[in-house]
Amino acid sequence: MSEDLSGLDTFPKLLAHHAQVRGARPAIREKDLGIWQTHTWGDVAREVRRIACGLAALGFRRGDHLAVIGDNRPRMYWAVCATQALGGIPVPMYQDAVATEMAYPIQNAEIGFAVVEDQEQVDKLLEILPQCPSLKRIFYDESRGMRHYTQEQLMEYEKLTALGDEYDKAHPDFYPAEVAKGSGADTAGMFFTSGTTSHPKGVVLTHAALIDRALAAAKMEGLDETDEVLAYLPPAWIGQNIFSYAQPFVTGYCICCPESSETVMSDMREIGPTYYFAPPRVLEAMLTQVSIRMEDASALKRGLYGYFMAVAGRVGGAILDGKPVGGFDRLMYALGDLVMYGPLRNVLGMSRVHVAYTAGEAIGPDLFRFYRSIGINLKQLYGSTETSVFVCIQPDGQVKADTVGPAVAGVELKFTPQRELLIRSPGLFKEYYKNPQATAEAKDAEGWFHTGDAGFVDPDGHLKIIDRVKDVGTLNDGTLFAPKYLENKLKFFPYIKEAVAFGQDRDKACAFINLDAEAVGNWAEKRNLSYSGYTDLASQDAVYDLIRECVEKVNADLALEPEIAGSQIHRFLILHKEMDADDGELTRTRKVRRGYIGEKYATLVAALYDGRSSVHVEAQVRYEDGRTGSISADLKICDAKTSSPQAAKRAA
User: Fold this and answer.
1) CATH number corresponding to 473-651
2) What is the DSSP secondary-structure string of 506-535?
3) What pTM was estimated for this model as a whole?
4) Taking burial as the number of CB atoms within 10 A of a residue's CB, which of 246, 282, 436, 446 is the most buried?
């Protein structure tokens, strides 16, 4: 990437640049009613101007906050840029959050305007309107179902842009003057944390921080206007925002919005992105689909798959990294690419991917190696909302399964005596909004951000994250206990969707297991096991035997790691329900809230440790429409065999 962007220190200025130098190139695509609709950079610049002028006509002023709530849609992104053009602050919010979860961010930021996708989001805001007196205007994109809504706060998108046209005609110099007033030090957006232990915090990020980190990573990977990205994760998550907003604005590449969450895979195959991001849970789900399809395949196909995947596992990563490989192995891999890996990449929608990232959670080594072995340049990165994402990235040819790579240009790393990682970077956040105490605790006087993550740098200069500092502990005998490390090992198996490990200050490690209902359901059907639903499936003896095998394989792996061998899992149970963000068990980014789960299911944790073989549970659940109900079940508790290092070595 060699384009000169000096002086373009805000996103609206970058938009004006792209409209001028590549106005006819595609900027964003959206699949609507089965047809891809393309908008050029010139189109985007015109629409952003219309929205900005419409907002100004209705009283939006510099420093005001505007909520953006919806799936990845062009108008949602345009509203973000229009807000920034006026010196306002966009606040993306999770579209799957229930109404009560939206109240605090709106109150905290005193949000006066909101641009939302559809009737569902309108209904949520109308529900909490009495609690949010600052909210004066709600603009909606999709008018379906809105015919009989008469609230004075509501206005459809088309009316907003029509007002913008009138205002722009009467004040033709207004918009360019507002854009020119902006500077890199201005706030570009506020992203609320998941709030795992308290109220979510509003992370304030400047234009300079986001542009600097987006540009550093783009230069490292050679991204340019020819790249294409699929925008399918929540726009309120900083990871999706950096890939579908910040980086397109510094490179000029095109983002593509799938029709719905159900069509992501088919839409991805149609688009064939060149640059891709997926958290481990998405990669796990994709591999689970592959595994299920192979179970349904003929014996010949299963045999070919097994043989060529063995070849890929042996030499695929080395070939991808450009390392020397024997002639026969290279020939077999080329044949495998023709009959197996190439078609598999096509099925996954990754035929054109030249770089793919995974982050958000640690990824299982075997899962990571699988994608790299079939020729997908999957790499790990490390970052957070507070760091504008890009802190560490694995460079090509230096990819390891157990690290997240060295620091990106401009980033400094150091560690406290307690192993906590500290970061200093041009991408650091400005502050936690209206929370000076939390800001001071997270960012010290020397500009070091205290991440809360425990880790170290290996001899090659690569960062390795162990766990959260507050979660790294010991068993009663002093053995290192890193719950996330155990959970990630369990989650590699396609039958396990989530896991929660316990053991801090106890004699042994135990775990809750959440099944992957699709994978286990497919497994059960092939064995003619009947079941009426998730709870019934989770109680089957055969399913417990299946999960016990997975746990015991994890124990065998742990036995080979001296520091953590004593943390093998002795007992486990399969939860009666899937963990859900609506029930408080997961964050909106699908991270396990271990402390909350431990408190909510304290009787189950106690049963794991007091020797019982079963336990009764009753729990409240929240449905999508906000109603609550209860569910009860008798859960079995299963013992798992642990391994000695000698036995594990013999088995390996």
Assistant:
1) 3.30.300.30
2) SSSEEEEEEE-HHHHHHHHHHTT---SSHH
3) 0.81
4) 246
